[in-house]
Design a protein that fits this description.
Blueprint: H1 3-30, H2 40-69, H3 79-108, H4 113-141
């Protein structure tokens, strides 16, 4: 497994875990009441920061393990890696645009800040997951 594929897997796993933790903590803090009443932003920032930190940690640890097995191949990059990264970035950007449009609609209807922030958070999460899946699938099946 090449460096960029390991990074894609790390980001994918940490995003899924980070979003899951956020949802569980948010629902637990709501305690059956309205989620809008929860002090959500510290939970969201912690989930985002934790997810980023976990992604970096997974990439580093996985890279060290791969480097011990084959030092020369651990960080090699080629044209295929750049093409897959570019394709994954395009997929991610498409979903971020959709989330941005959702945020604009929520602002237009004067939705609560909770819903606006969570729409953008969901957009970031979906973008990361779909982009990561696109990269992993491209590494496994190739670019068409």
């Amino acid at each position: 497994m090449v460096y960029h594929e390991r990074t894609a897997w790390s980001a994918l796993l940490s995003t899924v875990l980070g979003v899951s933790v956020y949802v569980v903590l948010l629902l637990a803090a709501a305690g059956g009441g309205p989620v809008v009443a929860v002090d959500w932003w510290p939970l969201m920032l912690a989930a985002i920061g934790g997810s980023i930190a976990l992604s970096i940690l997974l990439s580093v640890v996985w890279g060290v393990i791969a480097g011990r097995r084959d030092r020369d191949e651990a960080t090699v990059s080629d044209l295929r890696d750049r093409d897959i990264a570019r394709m994954g970035g395009r997929v991610e950007h498409a979903f971020l645009v959709i989330a941005g449009l959702g945020v604009i609609v929520l602002c237009a209807v004067r939705a609560d800040v909770f819903w606006i922030a969570n729409m953008m958070f969901a957009g970031f999460a979906v973008s990361s997951v779909v982009g990561g899946l696109a990269r992993v699938i491209a590494y496994r099946r190739g670019l068409v």
